[in-house]
Amino acid sequence: LQVLAYNRHTYETVAQQLVITVIPAPGGEPPYQGEFLVGNRNVEELLPAATREIFLQATAGVWEREDLHVINVTSALDRGGRVPLPIEGRKEGVYVKVGSRGTFSPCLASAASPESRFHCSLGQQPLASCYDTFAPHFTIRWCNLSLLQVWPSPTVPGPTWGSGVLEEGGDFQPPTEVTPQDLLPGFLVTLLVPLAVAVLLCLLLGHLMCCRREGV
User: Fold this and answer.
1) How many helices (H) and strands (E) does the chain have?
2) Is the dihedral of CA 49, 54, 59, 61 positive or negative?
3) Is 82 in a helix, a strand, or coil?
4) Over 172-215, what HEC string results?
5) Exposed, middle or buried by CB within 10 Å (0-12, 13-18, 19+), for 84?
6) 30-63 in b/e burial notation, b at 16+ Cβ within 10 A?
7) pLDDT tens sequence for the chain (216 residues)
8) Dihedral of CA 188/189/194/200: which sign?
9) CA distance linking residue 81 with residue 91, whole number of Å
10) How crowded is residue 3: how many other Cβ atoms within 10 Å of its Cβ?
11) Given CB 3.0 to 4.6 Å as the disulfide criterion, which of 37, 118, 150, 156 pairs with 141?
12) How far apart are CA 113 and CA 135, in angstroms?
């Protein structure tokens, strides 16, 4: 990633190159993932490691797991959210995806159940069987909670490379010859059909020009 900056007064430019290496997690992708919508934060407020650690501690209270880690942080504006009005300290909202090796807690399962979705469609609060440990630092919109179970994809073995040398005694066998095909019918259709159409058009045009004149 190359970052360019310039001075507006002197037009002096400075370039700095950042090398970012992305490696897969040692244990692979966590099979259980939950995505929370934080309504009272902007995306840059959840990027610092200290804030993410506080969020993970609050998530551990409702997930009942300790092996949690943040997978992704996305602004709600990138998901079709509206830009908030610059009044009353409103925030844009942040989607935070958290992963774990353990299954979802009964609290999260009840919050994402069909009964909770029905309550949300009526404008009511979803069902929750535990205390909201996110308050007062984070305001979670529970109607936007999504739980996902990711199954590991089977690994496809790569090709096996040989030495590139033909084994002793093995001769190269070329492919067999293709049986000859009769191309005469196709040739006649391709040639005679346009010719017949051209003759008919010429006869029709000649009839209109020669036999349809005034006085004939």
Assistant:
1) 4, 6
2) positive
3) coil
4) CCCCCCCCCCCCHHHHHHHHHHHHHHHHHHHHHHHHHHHCCCCC
5) middle
6) bebbbbbbbbbbbbeebeeeebbeebbebbbebb
7) 999 999 988 989 999 999 988 877 777 788 999 999 998 888 999 989 999 999 999 999 999 888 898 999 999 998 888 887 777 778 889 999 999 988 999 889 888 888 888 888 888 888 776 788 888 889 898 888 999 988 776 666 767 777 766 666 666 677 777 777 888 888 889 999 999 999 999 999 988 888 877 766
8) positive
9) 11
10) 9
11) 37
12) 22
Residue in the block written with tokens 């001769």 = 171
Angle (CA) 20 26 30, round 5°? 100
Amino acid at 143: C
DSSP 8-state secondary structure symbol assigned to residue 165:
S
Buried b (16+ CB within 10 A) or exposed e, 106-132: ebbebbbeeebeebbeeeeebbeeeeb
Angle at 90 between CA 89 and CA 94, to 5 degrees: 130
Phi, psi (5° rounding) for residue 167?
-65, 155
**Angstrom distance (rounded) from CA 58 to CA 53:** 9
